[in-house]
Amino acid sequence: MATNGNALLRISLIGTLLAAGGCGGGEAPDPTAWPSTAVPSPTPDQAREDFLQALQRTHRAAYRYTVRGDLPEGADVQATGAHDPAARLFEVKVTVNGTASPSATHRIVTGEHNYLRDLDDKLWVHLDLSRMSQDSLVYFDMSDPAGLARFSSSIGSVRRTGPNAYAGRFNPEKNHVKHFIPVGAPTIFTLGVLFADFTATTDRGWITSITVEVDPKGPPLHITTEFSGHGTKMQIKAPPKAQVREANISYYE
Q1: Which domains are present in the chain?
Q2: What is the mean pLDDT of each run of 10 residues along the chain (253 residues)?
Q3: Cβ burial 123-152 (10 Å sphere, 16+ → b, else e)
Q4: Can you tell me whether residue 114 is helix, strand or coil?
Q5: This prediction's pTM
Q6: How far is CA 204 from the centre of its chain?
């Protein structure tokens, strides 16, 4: 695999433009990303507080996850990943099918070292995140690799639908260029979608699944992220040095 700019950009920016009309009126809500304490309050405020706390707890712990769902124009996305924030480790494999240019990529991040490759390629491209601007299109944010914090900050209303089940609405455009749909494998940019629906499940205070429904001009898109192995140490290692090539120096300028 070449290590020039075009190849790296193709690996890093697996994006689909989702053009849609507004799904709700008025301005989107602007909730606090992470609540600091749980203050007893009537439902549905308590439901939202409990759900945000479960998101926060999951975000701060190690976990494994899978993603499956629809993308625009009949495409689909599947992913498997793992995150260990204490050890600063992350890994994800993302496959997008049904597009003019199907893709299958693999990312490993160990501390400040970001490795990318096509799944059918033995060579990896290495980027030193400590040398990169956070405004770079290929920068990777290890403080929120799966997008749980961005999802949390986008949430508006939440209601309980069962002892361990929730439903609500969120603003897909809350984070602008920092897209986060689906959680775990961000592949959709939204345009003009003020509100979208989600459902979620929990178990003993952990998030176990999040399903988002984005309603473009066409069939609704449903994408589910499932979480497991909460709090378990993840075995993620950097690729062998012989299989790693350095990215073009222009990415650090």
Answers
A1: 5-232+241-248 (2.50.20.20)
A2: 40 36 38 43 78 97 96 90 97 93 94 95 96 86 91 93 95 67 75 81 97 81 96 96 95 87
A3: ebbbbebeebeeeeebebebebbbbbbbbb
A4: strand
A5: 0.81
A6: 23
Q: Which two tokens stand for residue 97?
A: 């099918």
Q: Is 36 left (phi over 0), alpha (psi -120 to 50) or beta?
A: alpha
Determine if the peptide bond prior to 44 is cis (ω within 30°): yes
In the chain, the DSSP E strands lie at 16-19, 63-70, 76-84, 89-97, 103-110, 113-118, 124-128, 155-162, 165-170, 188-191, 196-203, 206-214, 221-228, 244-246
- Give the whole-angstrom CA distance, residue 134 versus residue 219: 35
